[in-house]
Amino acid sequence: MGQDQTKQQIEKGLQLYQSNQTEKALHVWMKVLEKSADLVGRFRVLGCLVTAHSEMGRYKEMLKFAVVQIDTARELEDADLLLESYLNLARSNEKLCEFHKTVSYCKTCLGLPGTRAGAQLGGQVSLSMGNAFLGLSLFQKALESFEKALRYAHNNDDAMLECRVCCSLGSFYAQVKDYEKALFFPCKAAELVNDYGKGWSLKYRAMSQYHMAVAYRLLGHLGSAMECCEESMKIALQHGDRPLQALCLLCFADIHRSRGDLELSQLKLHCLSESIYRSKGLQRELRAHVVRFHECVEETELYCGLCGESIGERNSRLQALPCSHIFHLRCLQNNGTRSCPNCRRSSVKPGFV
């Protein structure tokens, strides 16, 4: 595969990826990696694979491609490409919570001579280092790194970097219990998405909405927290972003706990009571708890809308649609329609929960 054909295939993969055809894009890029002899093209496609696996939460795969990218950069003997690959390696370790390694690779990035770190990538390096320091609970160092990244963003008019830094600052202030600032910075990120983000990935909107949800919940604004979390979850489901789905589910649980919602606790109570009365042979009490258990299942909609079985009684794989209705995966596959069986909305691209 020649240089021109490599570029065409990389661009084809990008178009597929931007239209949310992720698996097809990955297939195209892997073919380029297998067949192309163009080292620069291979370096670029490895960067695409690193980014795609990062957004899908496949962090071990992300790390694998980052390591190969470093080897390619060394073969090319290009300091700028080596910087870019070390940054991807730092991000991969950050996602895998290897924070000491992240800091080390970030320092390597900043120490490389004759690169564009001071102009284009220095802010991203500082952001990754700040996230690592936050993971290590080194709050002063984390704040210094975030402020440095923010200066890079402002000096270079990089709204996308500013958006990412604002989301990280939201997480920082949530951890240090300054909840007003924990809300201010994600709101700023959301403004940046609205003003500049038409061509950005939807992940930036999802990130800002998630961090706003966390801050609203901590401030006791539970209605606003639920709205933001639902918006973030919808995007996460559409893009198959499983790490963000997990964060949203945790946020939903915190919101319900803050509200004092007791339905799920009652469901567990009736389930346990049923087991106790069944073992003792007390039929009247057993019957009462079985009835109440199924009433709770209906009230909380914890059942498959196709087969009618309650969700959680068996170890079955579930699938959530962007409209938030949940079904057994096997039932949806057998149903054969592209719309939600409950509300008839288009399922677009479902995500797994």
From TrEMBL:
Keywords: Metal-binding, Repeat, TPR repeat, Zinc, Zinc-finger. It comes from the Eukaryota. Residues 304-344 form the RING-type domain. GO terms for biological process: positive regulation of neuromuscular synaptic transmission; synaptic transmission, cholinergic. One of its GO terms (cellular component) is neuromuscular junction. The gene is RAPSN. InterPro entries: Postsynaptic, Postsynaptic_CS, RAPsyn, Rapsyn_myristoylation/link_N, TPR-like_helical_dom_sf, TPR_rpt, Znf_RING, Znf_RING/FYVE/PHD. CDD domains: RING-H2_Rapsyn. It holds the Pfam family TPR_8. SUPFAM superfamilies: RING/U-box (SSF57850), TPR-like (SSF48452). This is Receptor associated protein of the synapse. TPR repeats lie at residues 123-156. PANTHER family: 43 KDA RECEPTOR-ASSOCIATED PROTEIN OF THE SYNAPSE. Belongs to the RAPsyn family. It comes from Panthera leo (Lion).
